[in-house]
Amino acid sequence: MKHSAAEIINEYGPFPSAEQVHGLTYDGKHVWFASGDRLNAIDPADGKAFDSIEVPAHAGTAFDGEHLFQIADSRIQKIDPKTGRVASTIPAPGNGGDSGLAWAEGSLWVGEYRERRIHQIDPETGAVLRTIQSNRFVTGVTWVDGELWHATWEDEKSDLRHIDPDTGETLERLDMPAGTGISGLESDGHDRFFCGGGNSGKVRVVRRPNHAQANRQ
Question: Which end of the chain is more exposed for a tag (fewer CB within 10 A), N or C?
Answer without folding.
Answer: C
